[in-house]
């Protein structure tokens, strides 16, 4: 793991760099805001955590924290000699993950670093990643584009047809009655949708999506109950 350390006191910086490297971390050391901004702009994706001194000769750690948080999801810990509530709250409000007041023991700093990194690792493994595509056999629904493809070829759907396939996609494997479908597509296109209209739209969808609309494999009929999407 690589840590960006920004500290203007060169004696403290060298001691911190040595201690971090002894713990197995790679380090990038900067002594001012300008140098740190250049590193953030070019190497942020390589960095696992940032340690920013709050008071720097050409600015403050606040500026660096803002730049980091605007461009990535990288944890930030402030190093500060100021232990008043206003500065601490300001830093945390800007997105900083923790702060430690000088002078501090190196073991305490290492413990804080490990704790913050664990939080980020746990968040990455437990939070679901946004889904940008849904696959229904050889049909792909690209959610960000609002488009549907079958074997890489775009299928043009009306607003109501798209709404209908999304209802099926969001209930894969579940049997949906005709009344349930009607409730969810009611007037979505500004038109009255009745039972006969639903039949027509399902027929059109099958013609566009199925290899053999007479023997549908995607939108399947469950006799006496309704429809479901085959998984």
UniProtKB/TrEMBL annotation:
<dbReference type="GO" id="GO:0005829">
    <property type="term" value="C:cytosol"/>
</dbReference>
<dbReference type="InterPro" id="IPR001867">
    <property type="entry name" value="OmpR/PhoB-type_DNA-bd"/>
</dbReference>
<dbReference type="GO" id="GO:0032993">
    <property type="term" value="C:protein-DNA complex"/>
</dbReference>
<dbReference type="Pfam" id="PF00072">
    <property type="entry name" value="Response_reg"/>
</dbReference>
<feature type="domain" description="Response regulatory">
    <location>
        <begin position="2"/>
        <end position="117"/>
    </location>
</feature>
<keyword id="KW-0597">Phosphoprotein</keyword>
<keyword id="KW-0902">Two-component regulatory system</keyword>
<feature type="DNA-binding region" description="OmpR/PhoB-type">
    <location>
        <begin position="131"/>
        <end position="231"/>
    </location>
</feature>
<keyword id="KW-0238">DNA-binding</keyword>
<protein>
    <submittedName>
        <fullName>Transcriptional regulator</fullName>
    </submittedName>
</protein>
<feature type="modified residue" description="4-aspartylphosphate">
    <location>
        <position position="53"/>
    </location>
</feature>
<dbReference type="InterPro" id="IPR001789">
    <property type="entry name" value="Sig_transdc_resp-reg_receiver"/>
</dbReference>
<dbReference type="GO" id="GO:0000976">
    <property type="term" value="F:transcription cis-regulatory region binding"/>
</dbReference>
<dbReference type="GO" id="GO:0006355">
    <property type="term" value="P:regulation of DNA-templated transcription"/>
</dbReference>
<dbReference type="GO" id="GO:0000156">
    <property type="term" value="F:phosphorelay response regulator activity"/>
</dbReference>
<dbReference type="InterPro" id="IPR011006">
    <property type="entry name" value="CheY-like_superfamily"/>
</dbReference>
<dbReference type="Pfam" id="PF00486">
    <property type="entry name" value="Trans_reg_C"/>
</dbReference>
<keyword id="KW-0805">Transcription regulation</keyword>
<dbReference type="InterPro" id="IPR036388">
    <property type="entry name" value="WH-like_DNA-bd_sf"/>
</dbReference>
<keyword id="KW-0804">Transcription</keyword>
<dbReference type="InterPro" id="IPR039420">
    <property type="entry name" value="WalR-like"/>
</dbReference>
<feature type="domain" description="OmpR/PhoB-type">
    <location>
        <begin position="131"/>
        <end position="231"/>
    </location>
</feature>
